[in-house]
Every structure is written in C-alpha cells, then in structure tokens.
C-alpha cells in the first residue's frame, strides 16, 4: 500500500502541466510512498508532449471517450487505488515546499474524524486565495456576478474572511483545485458525482464528506494555484457552469441566504 496517491486530470493543459508535475517530483519527500496518475481527458494541444518526459514516473490513463468531464475523469482511478490518502490535484497547481503534502497526510491520519483536508492556496503573486467557502446559496451565487463592491461584507463572509487563515478550521465548501481525502472514504463515496460535468462537483463532494466526517483547512500546507476563470471567458463553458449549478441546487435544495 502506498501512503499517498495523486491524480491530475488534464485537458489542453500544455501550458501548466509540466510545472505541476515538476513541483510534485521536486517536493514529494523521498521517504513517502506515493504514486502519480495523470488522466488525460482527450487533449488536442501539446499536453501529451509535455507529459512525455515524466512517463517513467507516472501512470498515464487516457479517457475512453475524449472529454468526459472533470469528475468522471478523476473517477477512472478509483478501482486502481491502494493508498491511505488520495490527492485530487489540478494541472495548474504548484507545490511550494516539501512539507505541504505530508502536512495534509499527517492531519488526516492524526484526526480520525477528518475525512478531507485542503491547503492554503496562494496565487502567482503569493497572495492568499480565499477558496474556503461557506455552503453555496442563491444569494452568494448572484453576488459573484454583481459589479463593483456591492454587498462586500456578505461576499467576504461567503469566502470565510472572518476566519483566521493561520489556523485550521472546518470548511463547508472546499475548492477542488487540491483536496486530500481518505482513500477508503473516496472509494465509499464513489468519487465525484459524474452528473457534474464541470463546476460544483467540489461543493457537492464537500457536502457528502461533511455528512459523515469533516473537511478541514490546514494552513501548514501551501500551494500555488494559477487560477483562470474560464467560465467568464467562454459562453460554452458558462453554459456548463450554469447547468452544474442547477444540478447542485436540485440535489441539495435552494437556500437563498
């Protein structure tokens, strides 16, 4: 059994994937047993060329039908896992030090009531990204699309700015850019709900984890996330985002505030 499994789903990720994998192999401790899976979701750019230098250190899985969606692609590794903790990682994540993955691993192992742990997430300017959020409501969703700083206090509450980000705290809605989850729990939950093609699958997963355990923010773990809001740039992705949000509220109920 490996201590940690890491899964990265790529889809036209040529610009960032080499940096992500380089940071993993640079910063994973030598004394930690781990395995890295890369699941390519039918990339049509140079993603596979960028992955090629790492082939002797990863297990590459090809989606059987092109782009099957973020969650469904991650679920392709479920039957292969033989680890204690599974890491879900975006292809635009950079590990910043040797301590971050061990910190997530240790927190989960040392707290039996914790099913999932998430790191401190920084942007490329080393600024904190507030990606720990309270459960999604219709109001919070609408405010994201409002111009300017209207309702700033409410928006700050949603991203938990009232919490001390130097200390651990429970997270109702964790970002899927990097999640560490107990592998047995991940398997028991059946992975992501594949009804979410893209977006809101992380909110859904956090809800399901928190029904039976806890999700905790662990500030000792630090990663860089090159965040790109694709749904704000492409109408086709915006439509996918909206469909996912409809599915989320149908599944979990409409909460307005």
Helix/strand layout:
Blueprint (H helix, E strand, L loop, with lengths): L1 E9 L6 H11 L6 E7 L6 H5 L7 E4 L7 H5 L8 E7 L3 E3 L4 H11 L3 E9 L15 H7 L7 H7 L10 E2 L7 E5 H6 L12 H12 L1 E12 L9 H18 L5
Parallel strand pairs: 1-2, 1-4, 2-3, 6-9
Antiparallel strand pairs: 4-8, 5-9, 6-8, 7-9
Molecular structure report:
It contains nine helices and nine strands. It has helices spanning 17-27, 47-51, 70-74, 100-110, 138-144, 152-158, 183-188, 201-212, 235-252, and strands spanning 2-10, 34-40, 59-62, 83-89, 93-95, 114-122, 169-170, 178-182, 214-225. Strand 2, helix 2 and strand 3 form a beta-alpha-beta unit. 37% of the residues are buried.
Secondary structure class reads: alpha/beta
Biggest sheet details = 9 strands, mixed
Terminal CA distance reads: 44 Å
- Helix percentage range: 25-40%
What average pLDDT do the residues reach? 93
Order of helices and strands: EHEHEHEEHEHHEEHHEH
Shape summary: globular
What value does the Rg take, in angstroms?
A: 17 Å
How many strands in all? 9
Number of helices: 9
Report the sheet-strand fraction: 15-25%
Which parts are unreliable, with pLDDT below 50 for 5 consecutive residues or more?
none
Attribute tags:
257 residues, alpha/beta, 9 strands, 32% helix
Short structural description:
Helix content is 32%, strand content 23%.
């Amino acid at each position: 059994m490996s201590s940690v499994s890491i899964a990265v789903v790529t889809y036209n990720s040529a610009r960032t994937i080499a940096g992500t994998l380089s940071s993993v192999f640079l910063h994973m401790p030598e004394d930690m047993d781990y395995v890295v899976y890369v699941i390519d979701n039918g990339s049509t750019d140079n993603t596979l060329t960028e992955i090629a230098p790492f082939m002797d250190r990863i297990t590459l899985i090809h989606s059987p039908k092109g782009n099957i969606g973020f969650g469904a692609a991650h679920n392709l590794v479920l039957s292969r896992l033989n680890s204690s903790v599974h890491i879900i990682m975006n292809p635009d994540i950079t590990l910043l030090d040797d301590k971050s993955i061990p910190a997530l691993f240790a927190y989960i192992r040392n707290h039996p009531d914790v099913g999932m742990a998430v790191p401190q997430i920084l942007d490329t300017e080393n600024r904190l990204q507030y990606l720990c959020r309270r459960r999604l409501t219709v109001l919070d969703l609408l405010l994201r699309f409002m111009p300017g700083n209207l309702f700033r206090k409410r928006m700050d509450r949603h991203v938990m700015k009232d919490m001390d980000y130097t200390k651990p705290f429970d997270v109702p809605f964790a970002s899927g850019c990097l999640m560490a989850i107990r592998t047995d729990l991940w398997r028991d939950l059946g992975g992501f709900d594949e009804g979410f093609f893209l977006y809101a699958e992380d909110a859904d997963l956090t809800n399901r984890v928190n029904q039976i355990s806890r999700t905790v923010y662990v500030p000792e773990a630090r990663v860089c996330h090159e965040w790109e809001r694709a749904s704000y740039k492409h109408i086709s992705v915006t439509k996918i985002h909206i469909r996912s949000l409809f599915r989320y509220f149908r599944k979990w109920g409409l909460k307005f505030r």
